[in-house]
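Task 17 of the worksheet. Students: predict the tertiary structure of the chain below and write it out as structure tokens. Keep your answer in the requested format; marks are given for formatting as well as content.
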Amino acid sequence: MSEDFRDRISSSGLRLLVGSLICVLAFAPTGATAQQTLESEQVSYVFKPGDTLFRLANKYFRKQSDYVAVQRINRIKNPRQIPVGKSVRIPFHLLKFRPSEANLSAFRGAVSIASDGQNLTPVAGLDIGEGSRLTTAARSFLTLELEDGSRVSLPSNSRVTITRLRHILLTDSVDYEIAVDKGRIRSKVAPLDKKADRYRVRTPVAVSAVRGTDYRTRVDEASGTAFSETVEGTIVVAAGDSLTAGGLISVPAGTGAAASATGGLAKADLLSPPELLDPAKVQSESDLQFSIVSRDAASGHRLVVASDAGFVDVVSETQGQGTDLDLAPIPNGRYFAKVTALAADGFEGMPATYSFKRQLSTLGGSADAGDFGYRFKWFGEGDGQRFYRLQILKDSKTAIPVIDEVGLSTDTITLSDLMDGEYYWRVGVIQFSTDPEDPEAIQKWTDFEKLTVAN
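Model answer:
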């Protein structure tokens, strides 16, 4: 037997037929039941010429003696004589692995990363390992990229633990698991081309798994309900702690599943993507303002802004109950906005994505009488060269301007020859971008103000 343990076989001598129950959303069992459920997950290996359980154990099992468990599970009488082509089931927890890789792709605001009892300083490209805990504060965001290209994004006020980040040697497959302790995450999972590849998201009351899709996971703090919403692809749902195929239901794109703390399971269609009014307008005010076409079924809306179309680098987000959403100031640039409708049952709807330009350009003005006439003054914020225009109309806002001064580079002008009467005035600005690749200028006007002149 000891000689068999010392045997080695080449990697080219192995061909894998891998099967495991993946793509499952089920209530997470606790204690011994949870451990038993995890350990029941298995892969299948097809024996080739020269294979023995001893050789597999020596190379791919965590302990050589684990061959006994595999022999018992598969009811193998003689571990040295296994027919070529026989499929053998092996529990995942018996298999050797190497640590897989993840790194911090992008982050904003106050994020915390704890690993091995130490707090790590967040920097782009930082390696993140199994067991790490990641936390985002208010108005803070981060995105991880896993070894296979999958991405995990945390919005504000969220906390997760990376419970599995492994590469299984026998199956040459990935084994990922993220535990959501608080808040939300978005999982953009790369297609898993090996049957043994696993990606799971665990919450206090549910666990989800997929083979390549885009979906969201959220834990409601008040009720403890875990929501899972499929944007692309398909997941499946199993109520309770059963992983048998008989309890599975399909949750394709456009639908969601909610697992309650009391054991209930609900499925719902997600609200359709909402529409932004005038999405192409330049966001030039101090606070960004977005207006949404009202839908009767929506109880509110959420808006997320990122610097890239894949929403890896999330910059800001907001949500509200109405159709008008304001966003705190962000730097100038080109951005992408993703808007979703929120349903009364707690589900977040399908997203609509728009691109927009942000260029701060505010403008205000005042007029008052002075010793030398009437002084008109204007002010505002914005980077880039600014030129102003002053228009004054007599008696009506629709009249032909009696004064139309253009190309003003100062912020004040005094007029001493205004005759008695009623006037309407306004000031405009044309502001050029500091980006040499952006030739488009901002043009805007203040509202008309009334001025009565009595000399």
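Marker's comment: The helical segments are 2-6, 31-39, 53-60, 67-73. Residues 364-453 form a domain with the Immunoglobulin-like fold (CATH 2.60.40.10).
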